[in-house]
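Data card: per-record layout.
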Amino acid sequence: MSYTDMDIEMKALSMLGESVPDEDADMLRAVCSAAAAELESRLRRGASSDEIGETFVTASAMLAISMYMELGSAHSGGVSGFTAGKLSVQLGGASAAALRKSAETMLGAYLDAGGFAFVGVQG
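The structure for this 123-residue chain is written out next.
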């Protein structure tokens, strides 16, 4: 399956469960593209986003939401979350980091280790 940035944007919107404000649409579009590019660049040799398919789109959308939350909290005037009854929502920080980690974990088998690997040492 070949994906498009629009596929990632639509997945991100469905995961958010709502549309973003008109003034943020360009920001979401940009982070969707950036998230896909980041994950593409980290794929290990021989792994392809087309082979990974829907998992790649979902992980990219999660990473995009993380980036969107980080950017949103940067220009939200310091509001980092809210509570309504028993529901608490964090708009940045730990929630964004958790989404990023989940996206990376989802693609863990396909991502390059980042240049570090343990190798056998003869004694």
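Known properties of this structure: Helices lie at 5-16, 25-42, 49-52, 54-74, 94-106. The two ends are 47 Å apart (CA to CA).

See the next section for split statistics.
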